[in-house]
Amino acid sequence: MKTLGEFIVEKQADFPHATGELTALLSAIKLGAKIIHRDINKAGLLDILGANGVENVQGEQQMKLDLYANEKLKSALKARGIVAGIASEEEDEFVIFEGFEDGRYVVLMDPLDGSSNIDVNVSVGTIFSIYHRVTPVGTPITEEDFMQPGSQQVAAGYVVYGSSTMLVYTTGNGVNAFTYDPSLGVFCLNQERLTYPPTGKMYSINEGYYVHFPIGVKKYIKFCQEEDEATYRPYTSRYIGSLVADFHRNLLKGGIYLYPQTASHPKGKLRLLYECNPMAFLAEQAGGKASDGVNRILDLKPQTIHERCPFYVGNQYMVEDVERFISDNQ
Ligand code: AHG
Ligand code: MN
Ligand code: MN
Ligand code: MN
After folding, report:
1. 120 and 59, same structural domain?
2. Protein residue with its CA nearest to atom 12 in ligand 1
3. If you take atom 14 of ligand 1, which residue's CA is the nearest one?
4. pLDDT band per the 50, 70, 90 thresholds, residue 19
5. Which intervals of the chain form a coiled coil (predicted)?
């Protein structure tokens, strides 16, 4: 058994960006994950279920656990003294960590992903994305530090709070998966250099919005449902409603997650900076692909912190299939 802490120290030399600071940063996320794990598992007993009665900047009903997770992660990251500030789904603007202008990192996060599931005991997650700041150390960070393309990430990962709690991350040197052992309070290495299986049989999409999907996506869904033994079709439809949980299952078993443009979300629902970019970094590191239907997600130049984009992520050949249907049906 190897813990996350031991793994990072052992692999120190391999990680292109993993300075001692990045190790400390990842351990802050580990701490946040342990706290959220503990309180999600007894959310029904604490007064942290249900809506917070506030609408967040996304126009969503903020759940108490959205805010709880946001606060716990924010304080864990700030305490390390190496993060100059954060951007979060649950914060209208980016947050400068006063007094930590010397921090070399900025972190973007979705503190609780899939929060519509939290009150019905279905898997949820946390997503994080880490960059070196681009503004001079010693000065307060600016929005420019958060407007970097996803290709500049130095690390990214997620925590999935499911039947077990797992932390999966990359620093650009493959994807590594750890399972939390609450009895010991440590994350133990599950799998090193996790990659997509060569073929997949699952597609994940909210077919409730089918009527509004681009024609190419409608044709791709029909393609998924056609019989073709050579390509393992028909595929199985699996959709949990938590990006992290759907992504994690598709990474292990092979598949594609799709969130196209819809009537209510003409640019797609998922947020580029703290959902699509980190998951795209992981997908590529696992031999997969992530696209907005036309462009590589990691090449997109962000314009605003909460901007959204269509999102297709999973086995490379499956993403390329849907890109072909989209381009053939412009
Ligand atoms: P969040 O809970 O962080 O706002 O993210 C929810 C996202 C994603 O996790 C999930 O796949 C998708 O929204 C579900 O959207 P629909 O309910 O529209 O299918
Ligand atoms: Mn939300
Ligand atoms: Mn989310
Ligand atoms: Mn969220």
Report:
1. yes
2. 241
3. 241
4. low
5. none
